[in-house]
Specification:
heterodimer; A: 7-stranded mixed sheet; 4-stranded antiparallel sheet; 11 strands; B: 112 residues; 6-stranded mixed sheet; 5-stranded antiparallel sheet; 0% helix; globular
């Protein structure tokens, strides 16, 4: 049973480009969480999704960031017009049940904005 | 003030020592997680607990709901335990009961 998969593992973008980060949850998991870890800082919640629904996006910056979790395929975190401050590690986690389930983390995507 | 506080921030131990990492939180929670992050960054979930105590190998996690405090203990520490240990609280209010609030982590270094 494969764990949570994220790709790419490393992503380099120039300022102004778009970044697309993918997260495939564990088999049987329908809840996905995205977290961001800025350099030298702790993890911060960004968004919580179920299939085809955004449940909580209170941690997402209001502009340039969006997330989706379609019926088929991975969850996507999209950052438009990236800036240097977006450079961070982005982790996703999945759980089989809402709220009460243990979360399993992916290996993360390290985004570097030049 | 961060809603989840960990101490110490950094900890150096000799191989074989008993290690304790503390976590205090100021919000109502439904569960508390202990996570391990190795250099290179992958995150592993060690424990999720909402009461009492859990044990897995040389790791023990306890939580006191009344005092809003949790501890992670490592017995007979080993250099391979060197990592950042992160405490994360799952809130029990609001529309979303899934997202976590994280402590800043405790960086543990175990010397041979």
């Amino acid at each position: 049973n494969a764990g949570v998969m994220q790709n790419p593992r490393h992503l380099v973008r120039r300022r102004g480009q778009e970044a697309r980060l993918r997260c495939s949850p564990m088999k049987g998991h329908s809840h996905v969480y995205w977290y961001r870890q800025l350099p030298e800082e702790g993890l911060k919640f960004m968004v919580y999704l179920q299939k085809e629904n955004i449940i909580d996006e209170s941690g997402m910056p209001k502009e340039r960031f969006s997330a989706e979790f379609p019926k088929e395929g991975p969850s996507i975190l999209r950052i438009q017009q990236v800036v240097r401050g977006d450079s961070a590690a982005y982790f996703c986690a999945s759980s089989p049940t809402s709220g009460g389930g243990e979360q399993f983390f992916g290996p993360g995507t390290r985004l570097t904005v030049l | 003030k961060n809603e989840v506080e960990q101490s110490p921030q950094n900890l150096t131990a000799q191989e074989g020592e008993f290690i304790t990492i503390n976590c205090s939180y100021s919000v109502g929670i439904s569960a508390l997680h202990w996570l391990q992050q190795h250099p290179g960054g992958g995150i592993v979930s060690l424990f999720m607990l909402s009461s009492g105590k859990k044990k897995h190998g040389r790791l023990i996690a306890t939580i006191n709901i009344q005092e809003k405090h949790s501890s992670l203990h490592i017995t007979a520490s080993h250099p391979r335990d060197s990592a950042v240990y992160i405490c994360a609280a799952r809130l029990n209010y609001g529309g979303s009961q899934g997202n976590l609030i994280f402590g800043k982590g405790t960086k543990l270094s175990v010397k041979p």
